[in-house]
Amino acid sequence: MLAKVRQVMSWLNVNMIxxxxxxxxxxxFPYCLTITSYSYLEQKFTKGKNLPxxxxxxxxxxxTTLQLVKTWDGNNYYALVGSDxxxxxxxxxxxxxxxxxxxxxxxxxxxxxxxxxxHLTGGGAARATWSGGYIGxxxxxxxITLTSRDIANSICRETFGEGFRMAEFHDGEGPSxxxxxxxxxxxxxxxxxxxxxxxxxxxxxxxxxxLL
Length: 212
Hints:
Elements: H1 2-14, E1 16-22, E2 25-28, E3 31-34, E4 40-44, E5 59-60, E6 62-70, E7 77-82, E8 94-95, E9 99-100, E10 103-107, E11 119-120, E12 126-127, E13 129-137, E14 141-142, H2 149-160, E15 165-166, E16 180-185, E17 196-197
């Protein structure tokens, strides 16, 4: 009997736990554990590692709209989206308990408008480059619900259709593109809100980074 209990506890220590409770008890047939304060428990435990920080302290990166351009006929809108003084691509700048839209993109090799002029920073990053894609925002999403890039991408597809995904820090043109990019807005009436979630592939500043 003792060996069985040790086996169950060892399993709990290294696996994803999804426990359904009945009253104050949670059962792993034929054993039951007492759970006093949760109706369910879903947490990944890894032996030798600390649990993630509380969600109230975890931050993720956000961008904003830096510039909007409307064509003379009023039928086409373009936006330069990117980092501002409040953005932090290294540790994040906005608590993941906040609800913000996701910036979505579909790269479609769109022709570059004449007004798009990129430049290099002193550090070698190409800024204000053309993404060649359509961009748009989802409805606000609480950051803590974005537990993976795949989930964020699926929200973009559900909102705008196939081919859309969550926009990323380096989605501009060329290997050195970073910090911002131009894109064509999906709808002339669509406006971009003050801040929105954007992914970054080489830093731990995503809403899901603390889970990795």
